[in-house]
Design brief:
This protein has 3 domains: 3-103, Phosphorylase Kinase, domain 1 (2-Layer Sandwich), CATH 3.30.200; 110-307, Transferase(Phosphotransferase), domain 1 (Orthogonal Bundle), CATH 1.10.510; 332-422, Kinase associated domain 1, KA1 (TATA-Binding Protein, 2-Layer Sandwich), CATH 3.30.310.80. The radius of gyration is 23 Å and the shape is globular. It has helices spanning 56-62, 66-79, 110-117, 122-141, 196-200, 206-223, 233-242, 253-262, 273-276, 280-283, 341-354, 403-422, and strands spanning 3-6, 23-31, 35-42, 48-55, 88-93, 97-103, 144-145, 154-156, 163-165, 172-173, 332-337, 358-361, 367-373, 378-386, 392-401. It is of the alpha+beta class. A hairpin with a 5-residue loop joins strand 3 and strand 4 (48-55). Keywords: ATP-binding, Kinase, Manganese, Nucleotide-binding, Serine/threonine-protein kinase, Transferase. Belongs to the protein kinase superfamily. CAMK Ser/Thr protein kinase family. SNF1 subfamily. It catalyses: L-seryl-[protein] + ATP = O-phospho-L-seryl-[protein] + ADP + H(+); L-threonyl-[protein] + ATP = O-phospho-L-threonyl-[protein] + ADP + H(+).
């Protein structure tokens, strides 16, 4: 089990140049809205680690309930022990910050490898996919559903032979399932990888949406591009909803068949993990499933992971995405609503008038509002588009202006108003 320490802000460091006298921080690896990730060296062992530093003040200002979620995330990650899942070594904290010491995966994101080299060969794609399914199956067997699987959340070791799953920030566990229908209902995920049943907002099976995302990942590995992609997010969602994609000519017939079972828009007939590990394409070249015994607690009994709640957890990747929150002030943010486009447009226009902002509405047939005020220091466009009979997508785009004025108007006013009106979980920002 990883150690958990809570120290004063001054730290209890015998080595003032090291974090808690234990970790020598190196270069910045990545950062997100609430965290930064550094390469570090464990002074006790000389081992390389990744240190994620979370700003508690920013987290609590965003949502006070996140304090309990951090504790739950730690509880879950302490219990996940698999060679294809990033390992948590230690957790430390001060009054203002939380520090996660994690396994350092030197090869970086699988996404970067694909971006640099393009599509992978079918054999290498298969090896990575086998490891991904091994990790996903392990999580599902313990009631953990990742819900945001994508190449950015998959890390590769220095040799390029081992894949590791990271970022459990949108994870859910079986106790999040509604007893009346046995399904999850939180709208989450990354647009290009989200399963069609999530968009329908009728509830979904966490294991089945993970399988869909795995299918998108496999397609990207073998093709070098996304199966569902469009600069217009609404058009992309419609392609996902209808399952409209085309395999490249270099894919083998067996792989095309396998992908079609992974990207089956009907979750009831979509292939399961148990079926995946028996598929002829998957097992080609040999596949040896890894068997693990449940970890024992201090009293010698198996710890009940399913009794924990992993909803809205803090992520373990450099991207840091939070379920239930906007990802911060950016160039573009979007979320889903059941309100009609007319109702939403009226709310935005009313807000603009209250704030004495210049308003321009889009041409007839389009729902959109452009606002500008304070001598051009604030400028934002809000687009409202219908996804299907049930859902509407609201997208806010920044169009220049002073940072402070924009943040004050958007973060502290308009977005809070829209969230209150829509009462919805925002979709992941692209």
């Amino acid at each position: 089990m990883p150690e958990i320490q809570i120290l004063s802000d001054s730290g209890d460091n015998s080595n003032t140049n090291a974090l808690f006298g234990k970790y020598e921080l190196g270069k910045l690896l990545g950062c997100g809205a609430f965290a930064k990730v550094y390469h570090a060296r464990d002074l006790r062992t000389g081992q390389s680690v990744a240190i994620k530093i979370l700003n508690k003040k920013k987290l609590l200002l965003a949502n006070p309930s996140l304090a309990n979620n951090i504790k739950r995330e730690i509880s879950i990650m302490r219990r996940l022990s698999h060679p294809n899942i990033v390992k948590l070594h230690e957790v430390m904290a001060t009054r203002t910050k939380i520090f996660f010491a994690m396994e350092f995966v030197k090869g970086g994101e699988l996404f970067n490898r694909i971006s640099k080299h393009g599509r992978l060969g079918e054999d290498l794609s298969r090896r990575y996919f086998q490891q991904l399914i091994s990790a996903v199956g392990y999580c599902h067997a313990r009631g953990v559903y990742h819900r945001d699987l994508k190449p950015e959340n998959l890390l590769i070791d220095e040799s390029g032979s081992t894949l590791k799953v990271s970022d459990f920030g949108l994870s859910a566990l079986t106790d999040q399932i509604r007893p009346e229908d046995g399904l999850l209902h939180t709208l989450c995920g990354t647009p290009a990888y989200v399963a069609p049943e999530i968009l329908s907002k009728k509830g979904y099976d966490g294991a089945k949406v993970d399988v869909w995302s795995c299918g998108v990942v496999l397609f990207v590995l073998a093709a070098g591009y996304l199966p569902f992609n469009d600069p217009n997010v609404m058009s992309m969602y419609k392609k996902i909803y209808k399952g409209e994609y085309r395999c490249p000519r270099w894919m083998s017939q067996d792989l095309k068949r396998f992908v079609s079972r992974l990207l089956d828009i009907n979750p009831e007939t979509r292939i399961t993990v148990d079926e995946i590990v028996k598929d002829p394409w998957f097992v080609k070249g040999g596949f040896k499933p890894i068997k693990f015994h449940d970890l024992k607690g201090e009293g010698g009994e198996v710890e009940a992971v399913k009794s924990l709640n992993a909803f809205d957890l803090i992520s373990f990747s450099s991207g840091l995405d939070l379920s239930g929150l906007f990802a911060g002030c950016g160039e573009s943010e979007r979320f889903l609503s059941e309100k009609s486009p007319d109702e939403l447009a009226e709310e935005v226009e009313e807000f603009a008038k209250e704030e004495k902002l210049r308003v321009e509405t889009m041409k007839k047939g389009e729902y959109g509002v452009e606002m500008e005020g304070q001598n051009g220091k604030f400028m934002i466009e809000v687009y409202i588009s219908r996804l299907n009979d049930l859902l509407v997508v609201v997208e806010a785009r920044r169009r220049g202006g002073d940072d402070d004025c924009y943040k004050e108007m958007w973060d502290n006013k308009l977005r809070l108003k829209l969230i209150s009106v829509c009462d919805q979980t925002p979709a992941a920002t692209v």
